[in-house]
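Readers of this paper often ask what the protein records in our data store actually look like. Below, we set out a record of this kind in full and without editing:
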Amino acid sequence: MSNENNDKVKRLGGFAYAVVYSDGWVKVGRGKNPEARVLAHNSSSKMRGADYVASCFSGRLLCPEKAEKRLINFCIAHGSPAHGREWFSGVDFSDLVKIIEGEFPGDKEEDFLKDKESRRGLERVCESKLDEMFKQDRDWKRTCYSAEILMEILVLSGCKGDSFKINEKGYIPFLLDCSLAIHGCSKEELAIIFMQASLDPDGGIETIRAKSRKLVGLYLSGESV
């Protein structure tokens, strides 16, 4: 595999991890740089008088959220919540190591490249639909990228439904809504939309759809968009 492809893979996905401390608390989570996460947890754990004991990391995963959910569910079933939703006590750390090493050794590099290509394919479909709708020479690439991140925030917040899935025409309806809503926004307006999506997902979805409907309505009425 070329160095260029290796660089692409390194920017995709993430890792799941588990770490245990001297007071018996374990922390499970995910991130693109799990070593840095663990170092941060080590510092905060010292405040309660606990020292780092051991940690375990998965291989690079296309969907680290799946691995994190598996670890959290195991800890819920075999331990007790200690702090927040990712800290537990009473969990045998060796069991977490077995899960990580046995179930999440890492996805194949070619899978990452295929996933990247499929996501870019969806972006192209979205761009073409927008260009077809407005018949204008606009640069939708940056907009589609921002829209994808915005939609990912909402999905991770628990939002779901048919509008978040690829339809029979080959595109994701809500991704189109996001693109319409944020295209042409100032940095300040974009920051407000992203903040609302993070803090109030339902309200964020309604704001996005309202802005999208308004823009489509202007287009259909023949007014300038």
Confidence is low (pLDDT under 50) at residues 1-11. The two ends are 45 Å apart (CA to CA).
